[in-house]
Amino acid sequence: MADPKGFLTTGREVAETRPVGERVKDWNEVYVPGSLLPIISKQAGRCMDCGIPFCHNGCPLGNLIPEWNDYAYREDWSAASERLHATNNFPEFTGRLCPAPCESACVLGINQAAVTIKNVEVSIIDKAWGNGDVTPQPPERLSGKTVAVIGSGPAGLAAAQQLTRAGHTVAVYERADRIGGLLRYGIPEFKMEKSHINRRIEQMRAEGTKFRTETEIGRDIDAAKLRRRYDAVVIAAGATVSRDLPVPGRELNGVHFAMEYLPLANKVQEGDLTVAPITAEGKHVVVIGGGDTGADCVGTAHRQGALSVTQLEIMPRPGEDRNAGQPWPTFPMLYKVTSAHEEGGERLYSVSTTHFEGDENGDVQSLHLAEVEFKDGKLEQKPGTERSIPAQLVTLAMGFTGTDQANGLVQQFGLELDERGNVARDADFATNVDGVFVAGDAGRGQSLIVWAIAEGRSAARGVDRYLTGASALPAPIRPTDRALTV
């Protein structure tokens, strides 16, 4: 273990963020560079000799958290990196983007502030990159088998890296112009700078993984032809169909899905555009949806110079502490203030949009809403609470409903779907089509990055077994596993 008395002598400290007035003027990550290293060893020392590390249950990857906490406490960064990579292909992604269900399950969190597991994780991997400990791991021999991976988000990349290291020849197909999926174009630069993706891609290229961008399976290449070309296929296309809001005025100019808005801001940072075609500059912005994607829209609008930003959530405001219905070690629904919320704007809870109102040019000008409450288990509008707020840009960030079926991929493969519209799979992540597997949100539905990576790793084992008859690759989860919630 780390410091036997660390949890008694050291309080919780987290990464220091740059001043709001400074960071909203650029797109760099919000944290002060290097601020964690002076404190992180002591923070890792707060990890207890708890006997049963429930953080393992909170994390679907099965991260060996007490082990790399111990190494970080002793400042043995190479050993810490080895233990971290033993279960996680991309800790620099999860260390920045994961909501840390491991911390919710931390034993110390029963009656104290949990160990800063996420901060320790990102410190270890950043130190590993700086020390040159992250190197390509090409296979010792090739199997002669070929695999196509459709989609280059965290699930697809994890599956591809595992299968490449197992000796198979892997090609990743991505419909966008760059590799990364939602990591590339759904996550703003201020949450994760894209240099972290780029260097992982270079590592994977050096290991032998091939990448094919601007190629959409179903439109550019027939899915059935792709299957005949490869010995196996992994579908990791995500759940990219955005949930819509069918209310009057939805057709007005200025009402967009979040995934129409956010990628354009990222393309400006990539140098593809000088100005985003959809921008919040000089506008009253309303973000519908209280989750992480909504917060990404809020932070983006601040940096683009919005006049005001209002975020709407139909559910009641969560509490700041666990309630009896969400006991430890489950992942509780708590009131969360992200870095984007620290930067300003208003958050409204228990409200529902009734309609949008536009001007003579068809541009949205206001949003009409009403308060809602639960009655007999259903949300109903409260009479007399209707009002309007200014809105020249509205982003819909209400989640996703399933994988894209409009491009023909599902039909061309002949895939069966489950009752929720996800691609159905068996215990080995195999679909009803021989040699075709599915990983990530396409099979699970909208989920977290740690679940996507875990799915990619587990599906890779299923593919490896299919191709060779056996596999030594790890499978941290089953398709039926779900988060530790109530």
From TrEMBL:
SUPFAM superfamilies (alphabetical): alpha-helical ferredoxin, Nucleotide-binding domain
Cofactor(s) the protein requires to work: [4Fe-4S] cluster
Record key words, sorted: 4Fe-4S, Amino-acid biosynthesis, Glutamate biosynthesis, Iron, Iron-sulfur, Metal-binding, NADP, Oxidoreductase
Enzyme class: oxidoreductase
Reaction equation(s) it catalyzes: 2 L-glutamate + NADP(+) = L-glutamine + 2-oxoglutarate + NADPH + H(+)
Biological process, per Gene Ontology: glutamate biosynthetic process
InterPro entries found in the cross-reference section: DPD_II (IPR028261), FAD/NAD-bd_sf (IPR036188), FAD/NAD-binding_dom (IPR023753), Glut_synth_ssu1 (IPR006005), Glutamate_Synthase (IPR051394), Helical_ferredxn (IPR009051)
Keyword Zinc: no
Gene Ontology molecular function: 4 iron, 4 sulfur cluster binding; glutamate synthase (NADPH) activity; metal ion binding; oxidoreductase activity, acting on the CH-NH2 group of donors, NAD or NADP as acceptor
Transmembrane segments: none
Segments forming domain Dihydroprymidine dehydrogenase: 39-130
Every FAD/NAD(P)-binding domain range: 146-456
EC number: 1.4.1.13
Keyword presence, Zinc-finger: no
Protein name in the entry: Glutamate synthase [NADPH] small chain
